[in-house]
Amino acid sequence: MARDLSALQKQYNSSASAQRRGPGGPGGPRGHMGGMGGKSSLKNARKTITRILGYLAKYKLRIFVVLLCMLANTLASLCGSYLLAPIINKLTLAVTGEEQPMSNIERLADNIISRFTGAVNTAVRSEMMSYILTVIVIFAVVYLVGILTSYIQARLMLSISQKTIESLRNDLFSKLQRLPIRYFDSNPTGEIMSRFTNDIDNIDMMINNSLTSIISGTVSLIGTFVFMITTNWLLTLVTVVFIPIFTFGGSAIAKASSKYYSGQQAALGAINGYTEETVTGQKVVKVFNHEDTCVEEFRLLNQDMRNKQLRAQFWGSAMGPIMGNTSQISYGVTIGVGGILMVLGHLSTGALTVFANYSKQFSMPINNISQQTATIFAALAGAERVFEVMDKEPEVADSENALDCPIRGDVVLKDVTFGYNPDKTVLKHISLYAKPGQKIAFVGSTGAGKTTVTNLLNRFYDISDGEILIDGRNIKEYKRAFLRRNIAMVLQDTHLFTGTVKDNIRYGRLDATDEEIVAAAKTASAHSFIMRLEHGYDTVLESDGANLSQGQRQLLNIARAALSNAPILVLDEATSSVDTRTERHIEHGMDRLMKNRTTFVIAHRLSTVRNANAIMVLENGEIIERGDHDDLLAQKGRYYELYTGVKELD
């Protein structure tokens, strides 16, 4: 049965899903942190803009050159328009014989043109023809400057935007590497990936297109205003009267649309998260015939996405028509007043023509900026989501005196109590020790806390009560990276990266030689099957090693751990998902791997822990029995029930 929309939204956009879906049940890691959120409106647009500008500030010189180019381009456009005034006045004089009233700046433009006309006039009989040819040449030069500066501006702005986005992606990815495992346990992979794709792409569009339009529009607006007021202050006043209308309309639409763009980005993240999980778990979907359910649930999320996009795009697209029609009204009123002034003899034909053009140009930047509303709000919503990840608390930094001295593998847990959530205790007063080279096994029902013990050894999570000691020192005294280099893990869920078999084994120690890689593979009993692959150690693995069997993937995982040479080894149900024959093959590799290492084994099949030095039986977060295999069988307690099958594992 398909879940309703509210349930799906909670699962992918709130902490409620984390509590339901976390490993280890309701008390698992996902239960601690909230999801990545689906807030309905921008939280702090000003702060977000400031942070984006902080990235752009690295390219101050280039931005300064861009501004100069924009200024030159605007001046070229405005001067080109202004040259129309004297030529129209000249033509009017030639046709009607009536002198046109000209402003000082019109006379200045006419004088400039007339100076060049003398040279042209020697080759052209008609004075009017020479005047027109002069204007054409000046037009060509002016607009050539405009074209050149526009090209330079576009190239520089493209470079700035791409370098900014590169820095943003690098910072986001670097931050992800510093976040604790708790964060990844609490948030769907698709939601995290959405930051790198949709959200950053929207920021890129805003910087490369919208930011250019805003700056260019502002420069054009100021320049046009200056030229307008030098042409006729009264018509300028008429045009400026409409600015409050533009401002009020734009702010009202912006306020109404901002919340929908954040909702749109959150809905997109939910779709990405659902799609990623469904594709990854496609075998499970088909095994349980849930195709129709998945289609229905995706339809609900997609419908929600459509509804939010409709609202966001409606308000975003409404900005253009409203501003455009308002500018047309402004243009009509300005021309009407200008016509009256011309009839009264206070304005020349050329000046009115030029001012009409400026009136259009004055509203054009406002319209262009308003049309960027959709991109801007989508980008700001995306930027908030990106910065939300960047603002998450990283793993606790190592102390200044953190150690990186050699580790032998003497491990002690003293009265350790821990819970992923403050209100849910997973481990209760756990105490145990492991001498160097010993093998300690954990058995018990699902959710008893076995995996949690190993998570604490690696400091994936830090405890608040009790102590974990390695070689007599609290693990918090060691550098975190050093500690993890000395603890190798073979997990039930293997993960292989895209690359060769050799590269995947070398992941255990990046400076390992090819000979050491082969030796590690032999230790893990993986060498023989690797040599049967098409290209041996150079065989390329893709899609998490989909062309290998589960047992082969696990053998590579064991080889990776063997290469690390870590004195402490953690085996977390490493054979639970393979058949019995493959299990024996893997066990041979693990036996060689465990030699001379302190080993912690979490086992589902109890036959794999018979030779452990000590077996800890956990139930409800407590050690209820401990001893070796024979001792525990003699006690005829919980371990006896599990081993003999009197009572099966939950």
UniProtKB/TrEMBL annotation:
| Gene Ontology MF terms in the entry | ABC-type oligopeptide transporter activity; ATP binding; ATP hydrolysis activity
Where does this polypeptide localize?
A: Cell membrane
Keywords in alphabetical order, please: ATP-binding, Membrane, Nucleotide-binding, Transmembrane, Transmembrane helix, Transport
- GO CC entries: plasma membrane
Major place of localization? Answer: membrane
Top-level taxon: Bacteria
Keyword check for GTP-binding: no
Q: Determine if Flavoprotein is one of this entry's keywords.
A: no
Q: Which Pfam families match?
A: ABC_membrane (PF00664), ABC_tran (PF00005)
Q: Show the segment(s) annotated as Disordered.
A: 12-41
Protein name, please?
ABC transporter ATP-binding protein
**What is the scientific name of the source organism?**
Candidatus Faeciplasma pullistercoris
